[in-house]
Amino acid sequence: MSSTGERSTATVYEQVQASPEFNELRSRLRRFIFPMSAAFLVWYLAYVLLASYAPGFMAIKVFGNINVGLIIGLLQFVTTFVITTVYVRFANKHIDPAAEKLRERIEGAE
C-alpha cells in the first residue's frame, strides 16, 4: 500500500475517532464500565475486609457447616456472572449497534 493510502486510512480512523458518534459510543461504554467495576471492587474489598477484620462474623453458621463467609464468597462468583450477563445485554442493545454503524462508515469511506 502506498503512503498516500496509509494516510487516507489513518485519516478515516482519525475522523471517526473525532466524530460525535464515536465519542458518544465511548462515553456510553465508560458510563457503564466504570461504575460497574467500582461497585464490584467495593463488593470484593468488603469481602476481603470482613474476612480479615471480622472473622467472628464470617464464621457465623447459617445452616449446617455453611457460614456467612462461605455464602459471601460464593456470592462473589454469582456477582461475576450477573455482571457479565448485564454487560452482554447492554452491549448487544447499546454498544454493538453503534459500533456497527461506525464500522460501516469506516468501510464505506475506504
UniProtKB/TrEMBL annotation:
InterPro entries (UniProt xref): DUF485
Protein keywords: Membrane, Transmembrane, Transmembrane helix
Record carries keyword Methyltransferase: no
Regions that span the bilayer: 32-54, 66-88
Pfam families per UniProt: DUF485
Keyword Ribonucleoprotein: no
PANTHER family listed in its UniProt record: INTEGRAL MEMBRANE PROTEIN-RELATED, MEMBRANE PROTEIN
UniProt protein name: DUF485 domain-containing protein
Species of the source: Pseudonocardia aurantiaca
